[in-house]
Design a protein that fits this description.
Elements lengths: L3 H10 L7 E4 L7 E2 L3 E2 L9 E2 L3 E4 L9 E9 L13 E5 L11 E4 L3 E4 L8 E4 L10 E2 L10 E3 L7 H9 L4 E5 L3 E7 L3 E2 L10 E2 L2 H11 L3 E8 L3 H11 L4 E5 L10 H7 L3 E5 L10 E7 L2 E8 L3 H19 L10 E5 L3 E3 L5 E10 L2 E6 L8 H5 L3 E5 L4 E3 L4 E6 L1
Parallel strand pairs: 6-7, 14-17, 14-18, 15-16, 18-21, 22-25
Antiparallel strand pairs: 1-13, 2-13, 3-12, 4-11, 5-7, 5-8, 6-10, 9-10, 19-20, 20-21, 22-28, 23-27, 24-25, 24-26, 26-28
Helix pairs in contact: 1-6, 3-6, 4-5
Amino acid sequence: MISVEEAQRLVVEQASSLPPRAVPLEESLGLILAEAVASDVDSPPHDKAMVDGYAIRTADLANGAARLAIIEEVMAGDVPLRMLGRGEATRIMTGSPIPTGCDAVVMFERTDVVDVAGDALGTVVIRDAPMRPGANILKQGCSMRRGDVALEAGCEIRPIEIGLLAEMGRSTVETMPRPRVAILSTGNELVPPEQVPARGQIRNSNGPLLAAAVARAGGIAEPLGICRDESPALRGVISAGLRSNILVLSGGVSAGVLDLVPAVLSELGVRCVFHKVRLKPGKPLWFGVYCAGAANCLVFGLPGNPVSSLVCFELFVRPVMARLAGRMDIFPPRKQALLSRAFTHRGDRPTYHPAHLADDEGGVHVDPLKWHGSADLRALAAANALIHFASGDRQWMPGESLDVLPL
């Protein structure tokens, strides 16, 4: 058996970023940008008003007051047609272009309009509004100039970046694609979730669990269903799964009579990198690489128990997905937390124990949950973290600091 750290190193060594591809802007959320993007316009494209109010000349103010003739009204989307002269003002809305001659905008709240008659716009009386040139005006190009690189390759595309890309005129963008992850559950005992299990059968929880984990990690899940522990059937379904970027199998990798997955993978040309990790739960983990022409697939054989499958997914599959998707920080972040109560750990392997993590007035605390082993999915449902207990028998005391993997 190898350590978790060595297994992670070997897994990541086999992974490299997928080739970038262009996608419509509306499909790019959560992806990694694969190109530097420069603006094709100034932003803002013109000097514009930052408030609803009146475009004025500060030279017309006397102690923050003035009485000015309104010569024009400029709404959003309009363009000023008249230049401001002495003693004049233009009514203007937020975002509208500033008229020539204006050097400040006074907001409506500091004004009153009088002398309105017929089609006349009237007179604006400004009170208590001492202003300097440039007040409430956003200058052309102050955010970015045409040709400026506003987004660098390697950044994650969030809603903010989508808005900025749209402002720069991009309807498509080069991105690192989402990895495609095929998921196959193996075992004669498995039945679909909608079926009532007969004696000796269990419902397939791993398939839906892993598909959801893949989606949450930013990948595209490609469920292959359930396959019986029979070599011919396994060969057919696994062959189909090897066309994906990653193939994740659950079950069939231990040492039982019907644990046929490693042999079938070898027959199909998948090279084994390692089998078994010093880990609880998750010891039987199998990892290999398939390369045939243009086809490259990273293959994970996860243990069949659901908690084992999820722990192995978080420690090994998720980082590989991140690497394929072009991310720099590929390992899930850890935290240090204080143990909330005394706990006895026994075992010859490092253990990832389901726990509840809470940030309270006394700091970050973690509480180990009652857990009946790697088949106990209900206990995992109450968890939001995994405590990492080192191997060996030990009594841990309240307040001791432990390494925690948030879920």
